[in-house]
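Hi C.,

You asked whether I'd gotten around to modeling the 285-residue construct. I have! Everything is below, sequence then structure, no commentary in between.
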Amino acid sequence: MHNLSHHLKDAPVSAWIGILIVIFYAVLALGAPFFAPFAESASVGKQYMPWASPHYLGTDALGRDVLSRLIYGARNTVGIALVTTALAFTLGATFGLLAATIGGWFDAISSRVVDVLMAIPPLIFALLILTITGTSVIALILVIAILDSTRVFRLSRAVAQGILTMDYIEVARMRGEGMFWLIRKEVLPNAAAPLIAEFGLRFCFVFLFISALSFLGLGIQPPTADWGGMVRESAKLISFANFATFQTATFGLAPLLPAGAIALLTIGVNLVVDWVLHMSSGLKE
Protein backbone atom coordinates (compact mmCIF):
# COMPACT_ATOMS: atom_id res chain seq x y z
CA MET A 1 0.00 0.00 0.00
CA HIS A 2 2.88 2.35 0.82
CA ASN A 3 4.49 1.68 -2.58
CA LEU A 4 1.17 2.31 -4.33
CA SER A 5 0.70 5.66 -2.57
CA HIS A 6 4.30 6.58 -3.42
CA HIS A 7 3.77 5.75 -7.10
CA LEU A 8 0.48 7.67 -7.18
CA LYS A 9 2.18 10.69 -5.63
CA ASP A 10 4.85 10.67 -8.35
CA ALA A 11 2.43 9.87 -11.17
CA PRO A 12 2.46 12.30 -14.12
CA VAL A 13 -0.54 14.40 -15.09
CA SER A 14 -1.40 12.05 -17.98
CA ALA A 15 -1.61 9.10 -15.59
CA TRP A 16 -3.91 11.01 -13.25
CA ILE A 17 -6.13 11.96 -16.18
CA GLY A 18 -6.35 8.28 -17.14
CA ILE A 19 -7.02 7.19 -13.56
CA LEU A 20 -9.81 9.75 -13.15
CA ILE A 21 -11.40 8.68 -16.44
CA VAL A 22 -11.31 5.01 -15.43
CA ILE A 23 -12.73 5.79 -11.96
CA PHE A 24 -15.50 7.89 -13.53
CA TYR A 25 -16.52 5.04 -15.83
CA ALA A 26 -16.31 2.50 -13.01
CA VAL A 27 -18.56 4.58 -10.75
CA LEU A 28 -20.97 5.20 -13.63
CA ALA A 29 -21.13 1.49 -14.49
CA LEU A 30 -21.61 0.34 -10.90
CA GLY A 31 -24.21 3.00 -10.12
CA ALA A 32 -26.09 2.94 -13.42
CA PRO A 33 -29.55 2.37 -11.86
CA PHE A 34 -28.98 5.33 -9.52
CA PHE A 35 -27.54 7.78 -12.06
CA ALA A 36 -29.84 7.03 -15.01
CA PRO A 37 -32.98 9.20 -14.95
CA PHE A 38 -35.05 6.52 -16.73
CA ALA A 39 -35.10 2.75 -17.14
CA GLU A 40 -32.76 1.18 -19.67
CA SER A 41 -35.34 0.07 -22.25
CA ALA A 42 -38.42 2.10 -21.33
CA SER A 43 -40.10 4.26 -23.99
CA VAL A 44 -40.55 7.53 -22.13
CA GLY A 45 -41.41 9.97 -24.91
CA LYS A 46 -41.81 10.59 -28.59
CA GLN A 47 -39.05 9.58 -30.99
CA TYR A 48 -36.13 11.95 -31.56
CA MET A 49 -37.16 14.50 -28.96
CA PRO A 50 -34.79 17.51 -28.66
CA TRP A 51 -32.13 17.98 -25.98
CA ALA A 52 -34.19 19.45 -23.19
CA SER A 53 -35.38 18.60 -19.70
CA PRO A 54 -36.12 15.87 -18.73
CA HIS A 55 -34.43 14.23 -21.75
CA TYR A 56 -31.12 16.10 -21.65
CA LEU A 57 -29.68 14.17 -24.63
CA GLY A 58 -33.01 13.61 -26.35
CA THR A 59 -34.65 10.30 -27.22
CA ASP A 60 -33.95 7.65 -29.84
CA ALA A 61 -36.12 6.09 -32.57
CA LEU A 62 -38.18 4.18 -29.98
CA GLY A 63 -38.59 7.09 -27.58
CA ARG A 64 -36.00 5.82 -25.09
CA ASP A 65 -33.93 8.31 -23.12
CA VAL A 66 -30.46 8.54 -24.71
CA LEU A 67 -28.69 9.66 -21.53
CA SER A 68 -30.07 6.70 -19.60
CA ARG A 69 -29.01 4.28 -22.33
CA LEU A 70 -25.52 5.78 -22.39
CA ILE A 71 -25.19 5.22 -18.64
CA TYR A 72 -26.53 1.67 -18.81
CA GLY A 73 -24.31 1.10 -21.84
CA ALA A 74 -21.30 1.77 -19.60
CA ARG A 75 -22.38 -1.04 -17.29
CA ASN A 76 -23.13 -3.50 -20.08
CA THR A 77 -20.26 -2.80 -22.48
CA VAL A 78 -17.55 -2.26 -19.88
CA GLY A 79 -18.78 -5.08 -17.64
CA ILE A 80 -18.85 -7.66 -20.42
CA ALA A 81 -15.47 -6.48 -21.73
CA LEU A 82 -13.95 -6.79 -18.25
CA VAL A 83 -15.29 -10.33 -17.73
CA THR A 84 -14.12 -11.34 -21.21
CA THR A 85 -10.63 -9.92 -20.64
CA ALA A 86 -10.34 -11.64 -17.25
CA LEU A 87 -11.33 -14.99 -18.80
CA ALA A 88 -8.92 -14.47 -21.72
CA PHE A 89 -6.10 -13.73 -19.29
CA THR A 90 -6.91 -16.72 -17.11
CA LEU A 91 -6.78 -19.05 -20.12
CA GLY A 92 -3.85 -17.44 -21.93
CA ALA A 93 -1.60 -16.82 -18.93
CA THR A 94 -2.24 -20.27 -17.44
CA PHE A 95 -1.41 -22.18 -20.61
CA GLY A 96 1.43 -19.79 -21.50
CA LEU A 97 3.18 -20.21 -18.16
CA LEU A 98 2.63 -23.98 -18.21
CA ALA A 99 3.94 -24.26 -21.77
CA ALA A 100 7.11 -22.35 -20.89
CA THR A 101 7.68 -24.30 -17.67
CA ILE A 102 6.83 -27.80 -18.91
CA GLY A 103 8.26 -27.42 -22.41
CA GLY A 104 8.50 -30.45 -24.68
CA TRP A 105 5.40 -31.83 -26.32
CA PHE A 106 3.00 -29.69 -24.27
CA ASP A 107 4.72 -26.50 -25.41
CA ALA A 108 4.85 -27.66 -29.03
CA ILE A 109 1.17 -28.66 -29.23
CA SER A 110 -0.06 -25.55 -27.39
CA SER A 111 2.00 -23.25 -29.58
CA ARG A 112 0.77 -24.85 -32.81
CA VAL A 113 -2.88 -24.59 -31.72
CA VAL A 114 -2.35 -20.92 -30.89
CA ASP A 115 -0.63 -20.34 -34.25
CA VAL A 116 -3.64 -21.81 -36.07
CA LEU A 117 -6.09 -19.62 -34.15
CA MET A 118 -3.98 -16.49 -34.69
CA ALA A 119 -3.75 -17.18 -38.44
CA ILE A 120 -7.53 -16.66 -38.77
CA PRO A 121 -8.67 -13.00 -38.82
CA PRO A 122 -10.41 -12.56 -35.45
CA LEU A 123 -13.36 -10.52 -36.71
CA ILE A 124 -14.18 -13.00 -39.48
CA PHE A 125 -13.77 -15.95 -37.09
CA ALA A 126 -16.00 -14.30 -34.46
CA LEU A 127 -18.67 -13.45 -37.04
CA LEU A 128 -18.65 -17.06 -38.28
CA ILE A 129 -18.89 -18.66 -34.83
CA LEU A 130 -21.50 -16.21 -33.52
CA THR A 131 -23.62 -16.76 -36.63
CA ILE A 132 -23.60 -20.50 -35.90
CA THR A 133 -23.97 -20.42 -32.10
CA GLY A 134 -26.20 -17.37 -31.79
CA THR A 135 -25.50 -14.01 -30.22
CA SER A 136 -26.05 -14.68 -26.54
CA VAL A 137 -23.87 -12.91 -23.99
CA ILE A 138 -22.27 -16.22 -22.93
CA ALA A 139 -21.36 -17.09 -26.52
CA LEU A 140 -19.99 -13.58 -27.08
CA ILE A 141 -17.78 -13.79 -23.97
CA LEU A 142 -16.47 -17.29 -24.75
CA VAL A 143 -15.68 -16.62 -28.42
CA ILE A 144 -13.83 -13.36 -27.79
CA ALA A 145 -12.04 -14.74 -24.71
CA ILE A 146 -10.72 -17.75 -26.64
CA LEU A 147 -9.58 -15.55 -29.54
CA ASP A 148 -7.91 -13.02 -27.26
CA SER A 149 -6.27 -15.63 -25.03
CA THR A 150 -3.95 -16.54 -27.91
CA ARG A 151 -2.25 -13.12 -27.65
CA VAL A 152 -1.92 -13.50 -23.88
CA PHE A 153 -0.50 -17.00 -24.35
CA ARG A 154 2.25 -15.72 -26.63
CA LEU A 155 3.23 -12.91 -24.26
CA SER A 156 3.14 -14.94 -21.03
CA ARG A 157 5.08 -17.80 -22.65
CA ALA A 158 7.78 -15.45 -23.96
CA VAL A 159 8.13 -13.63 -20.62
CA ALA A 160 8.22 -16.89 -18.67
CA GLN A 161 10.87 -18.40 -20.95
CA GLY A 162 13.12 -15.42 -20.25
CA ILE A 163 12.59 -15.76 -16.49
CA LEU A 164 13.18 -19.53 -16.48
CA THR A 165 16.76 -19.03 -17.71
CA MET A 166 17.71 -17.05 -14.58
CA ASP A 167 20.09 -18.46 -11.97
CA TYR A 168 17.57 -18.30 -9.13
CA ILE A 169 15.29 -20.65 -11.08
CA GLU A 170 18.11 -23.18 -11.32
CA VAL A 171 18.74 -22.83 -7.60
CA ALA A 172 15.06 -23.44 -6.86
CA ARG A 173 15.06 -26.54 -9.08
CA MET A 174 18.17 -27.86 -7.34
CA ARG A 175 16.37 -27.43 -4.02
CA GLY A 176 13.68 -29.73 -5.41
CA GLU A 177 10.92 -27.18 -5.83
CA GLY A 178 8.02 -28.35 -7.99
CA MET A 179 6.65 -26.85 -11.18
CA PHE A 180 3.67 -25.10 -9.60
CA TRP A 181 5.87 -23.66 -6.84
CA LEU A 182 8.19 -22.21 -9.49
CA ILE A 183 5.27 -20.65 -11.37
CA ARG A 184 3.61 -19.25 -8.23
CA LYS A 185 6.69 -18.04 -6.35
CA GLU A 186 9.24 -17.17 -9.03
CA VAL A 187 7.78 -16.80 -12.52
CA LEU A 188 4.46 -15.08 -11.85
CA PRO A 189 5.78 -12.33 -9.52
CA ASN A 190 8.51 -11.40 -12.02
CA ALA A 191 6.09 -11.49 -14.96
CA ALA A 192 3.40 -9.47 -13.18
CA ALA A 193 4.34 -6.00 -14.51
CA PRO A 194 4.17 -6.79 -18.27
CA LEU A 195 1.08 -8.95 -17.75
CA ILE A 196 -0.74 -6.17 -15.86
CA ALA A 197 0.09 -3.70 -18.63
CA GLU A 198 -1.05 -6.22 -21.23
CA PHE A 199 -4.31 -6.67 -19.33
CA GLY A 200 -5.07 -2.98 -19.87
CA LEU A 201 -4.24 -3.18 -23.56
CA ARG A 202 -6.25 -6.38 -24.00
CA PHE A 203 -9.21 -4.75 -22.25
CA CYS A 204 -9.12 -1.92 -24.82
CA PHE A 205 -8.99 -4.36 -27.72
CA VAL A 206 -11.81 -6.50 -26.30
CA PHE A 207 -13.88 -3.42 -25.52
CA LEU A 208 -13.49 -2.12 -29.08
CA PHE A 209 -14.07 -5.62 -30.51
CA ILE A 210 -17.38 -5.99 -28.66
CA SER A 211 -18.44 -2.53 -29.83
CA ALA A 212 -17.53 -3.44 -33.42
CA LEU A 213 -19.55 -6.67 -33.24
CA SER A 214 -22.51 -4.77 -31.77
CA PHE A 215 -22.26 -2.22 -34.59
CA LEU A 216 -22.42 -5.12 -37.06
CA GLY A 217 -25.45 -6.57 -35.23
CA LEU A 218 -23.74 -9.64 -33.71
CA GLY A 219 -22.69 -8.24 -30.36
CA ILE A 220 -24.87 -7.30 -27.39
CA GLN A 221 -28.44 -7.56 -28.62
CA PRO A 222 -31.32 -5.06 -28.20
CA PRO A 223 -33.02 -3.95 -26.06
CA THR A 224 -29.85 -4.12 -23.90
CA ALA A 225 -28.06 -0.80 -24.08
CA ASP A 226 -24.67 -1.01 -25.78
CA TRP A 227 -22.51 1.77 -27.17
CA GLY A 228 -21.66 -0.02 -30.42
CA GLY A 229 -25.33 -0.76 -31.04
CA MET A 230 -26.24 2.84 -30.21
CA VAL A 231 -23.81 4.07 -32.88
CA ARG A 232 -25.46 1.75 -35.42
CA GLU A 233 -28.98 2.83 -34.44
CA SER A 234 -28.23 6.56 -34.64
CA ALA A 235 -25.83 6.58 -37.61
CA LYS A 236 -28.64 7.25 -40.08
CA LEU A 237 -29.42 10.54 -38.30
CA ILE A 238 -26.24 12.12 -39.68
CA SER A 239 -27.92 12.56 -43.09
CA PHE A 240 -30.71 14.56 -41.41
CA ALA A 241 -28.38 16.88 -39.51
CA ASN A 242 -28.84 20.57 -40.20
CA PHE A 243 -26.77 23.01 -38.21
CA ALA A 244 -29.15 25.89 -38.92
CA THR A 245 -31.01 25.09 -35.68
CA PHE A 246 -29.91 23.43 -32.46
CA GLN A 247 -32.62 20.76 -32.62
CA THR A 248 -31.60 19.53 -36.08
CA ALA A 249 -27.91 19.91 -35.25
CA THR A 250 -28.29 17.32 -32.47
CA PHE A 251 -29.14 14.72 -35.12
CA GLY A 252 -25.52 14.86 -36.28
CA LEU A 253 -24.24 14.62 -32.70
CA ALA A 254 -26.36 11.58 -31.75
CA PRO A 255 -23.95 8.88 -33.07
CA LEU A 256 -20.96 10.81 -31.71
CA LEU A 257 -22.13 10.43 -28.09
CA PRO A 258 -21.59 6.64 -27.77
CA ALA A 259 -18.59 6.82 -30.10
CA GLY A 260 -17.08 9.52 -27.89
CA ALA A 261 -17.74 7.39 -24.79
CA ILE A 262 -15.86 4.50 -26.42
CA ALA A 263 -12.95 6.73 -27.43
CA LEU A 264 -12.67 8.44 -24.03
CA LEU A 265 -12.48 5.15 -22.10
CA THR A 266 -9.91 3.79 -24.55
CA ILE A 267 -7.74 6.89 -24.09
CA GLY A 268 -8.07 6.71 -20.29
CA VAL A 269 -7.06 3.05 -20.08
CA ASN A 270 -4.11 3.61 -22.43
CA LEU A 271 -2.85 6.51 -20.32
CA VAL A 272 -2.89 4.28 -17.23
CA VAL A 273 -1.20 1.44 -19.14
CA ASP A 274 1.57 3.77 -20.35
CA TRP A 275 2.20 4.80 -16.75
CA VAL A 276 2.31 1.18 -15.55
CA LEU A 277 4.74 0.27 -18.35
CA HIS A 278 6.93 3.23 -17.44
CA MET A 279 7.01 2.19 -13.79
CA SER A 280 7.80 -1.44 -14.60
CA SER A 281 10.63 -0.44 -16.95
CA GLY A 282 12.46 1.38 -14.15
CA LEU A 283 13.13 4.39 -16.35
CA LYS A 284 13.22 7.87 -14.89
CA GLU A 285 11.93 11.09 -16.40
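If it helps when you're writing up: The chain has one domain: 31-281.

Thanks,
B.
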